Amino acid sequence: MSNAAPPRKAPDQPWRTEGTPDEPPERPRGRWPRGRWWGLLLTGVIVFLIAYVGLTYLDRGNEPTISYTEFSRQVEAGNVSKIYSKGDAIQGELKSARDKPDGEGEYKKFKTQRPAFADDDLWRELSSREVTVTAEPVVRERGVLSNLLFSLIPIAFLVAVWVFFARRMGGGMGGAGGMLSRRAPPKPVELQPGKERTTFADVAGIDEVKGELDDVVDFLEHPDAYRRMGAKMPRGVLLAGSPGTGKTLLARAVAGEAGVPFFSASASEFIEMIVGVGASRVRELFAEARKVAPSIIFIDEIDTIGRMRGGGASVSGHDEREQTLNQILTEMDGFSGSEGVIVIAATNRADILDPALTRPGRFDRVVNVSPPDRGGREAILRIHTREIPLAEDVDLTQLARTTPGMTGADLANLANEAALLAVKRGQGQVTASDLSEALEKVQLGAERTLVMPEEDRRRTAYHESGHALLGMLQPGADPVRKITIVPRGRALGVTMSTPEVERYAHSEGYLRGRIIGALGGMAAEEVVYGVVTTGAENDLEQVTNIARGMVARWGMSERLGRLSALPSDAQQAYGLSAAPQTLDVIDAEMRRIADDCYEEACRKLRDHRGQLNALAEALLENETLEEADAYRIAGITRLAKDADA
């Protein structure tokens, strides 16, 4: 079963639907339905016939122009009936028709031009021939109907072009363009039975969250029972958690479990440059959801439009983001009669949401979705490997134990990477080796084909051996899982250490042990070579973050005391949350902790120099050491695993 988001039914519709019957596909924007082509063609034929008849039979501007010589000849012959002259231009009518100058048909009315140099006695000639000189033009200009047709045709063409481009833009423009592209009102639809949906069977590792959403499902399935007790359906549920923890999947599972239609959209898809478009789309989305109520609307990354208002300057008093948020608040408040519609939203930053959005009556519940524990990771791995043939040596329980902190999305990516490796190797099954290599690729990056000088390679071996040996010697440290000097990502070598059991609170001794382990590579280089290199850059970043947390956030410094002087969200703006004297104390204490740990790391490596050399030589020979081999070569007994592990 695929857990991908359902496709949009129309390119300009900013939401996706699931659980509604398959309606006839909407016509693409900018195209006419097939049934309208006949009407359009018939209209074109009628307009053409009217124009043709008007120009052919009602137009009076098709009289031929003859030469002045021909005109003089007709006057002498007495064949001119009447004329009208304006300046040197002459219009007239013959008594009897004559052949046209071009030989195509006959003419009776004519136009000509008297030359300026003509020296004839025209008036006397006309009088003697009894030609009537009229006061009105004999040859009239183009008729009113012809002028009207010729005037309307360019206008109609321009309007047609404008409508065409307005429809192709699909409502993204405001004003008249939006009105031209408005779709017909949606029709009520019924849920199609038997359609495969995402349910709680496809969700694992977050059982406590599913428990909080069970009553929402029950309400959707049995609304009458709750109404009889006077209970109201919750307006909204806010899913807050780290990226990849399964918030979108949970929302789809709630809708699938209850068997109700599901509308999903990203908050950023409502925002446009034109103010008012986002609010209009919100109104349309809620209108569609109410037509098939009970239903669920899911808005992902709601912090895009749900940030606290008034925090920044805007060009106008009500910008597009605030109008969209205000419309969501209005819809959820019940003024629009949104009974039966539950809004589920997801965010990674619940702390920055507007209080009006999270108050009771809007999002009644805030559900925290955390990364799964060991049992949850195992269940997630079993779901994502259901369609992957696994070899007998694959132990998902052990794999779950070595992947602490990974989310559901990370584990899905891990299973997929292992399957890709198996295909590249031409295997019929995914082996434990494939999963192990996929884990290294996900966590550390892909292997690099880098040819290092022997001196740099030996230095890297001692660097990684220093990390590993201190991790083995330090009491309570995370077990060493693998050591390698194969370049991966930006690193020339890697030492993998993962906890044996889940840790939710860290002691000061454990954190100092992590600092000592992180400084092990630099300490090994100083003990062996007497110098340090740039290879410890990432190690020093880890040391700095841990030491800063110990001193400024977790109260592990006697000088600073039991204070949280630097909240976690202020680390990017270091120095904005504490006085300058406090910052000086923080820096001094961080330096003291790092110096003490570095001295201890150097002392331990000097005391166990033989084990350090043994690990480095083994790495130079094998390039990679697994957990059991590393402990055996170092001569350190691996502590028994925790009973729960």
What does this structure look like?
The structure is a single chain. This protein has helices at residues 36-58, 68-76, 122-128, 144-168, 176-180, 207-221, 223-228, 247-258, 277-291, 320-332, 355-358, 374-384, 396-401, 408-424, 432-444, 454-473, 508-518, 520-529, 537-552, 580-607, 609-622, 627-634, and strands spanning 16-18, 80-86, 89-99, 106-113, 132-133, 236-241, 262-266, 295-300, 341-347, 365-369, 480-484, 494-497, 624-626. It is elongated and about 145 Å long. The protein contains 22 helices and 13 strands. A hairpin with a 2-residue loop joins β2 (80-86) and β3 (89-99). It is an alpha/beta fold.
Short description:
The chain is an alpha/beta fold. It contains 22 helices and 13 strands.
Properties at a glance:
single chain; 645 residues; elongated; disordered C terminus
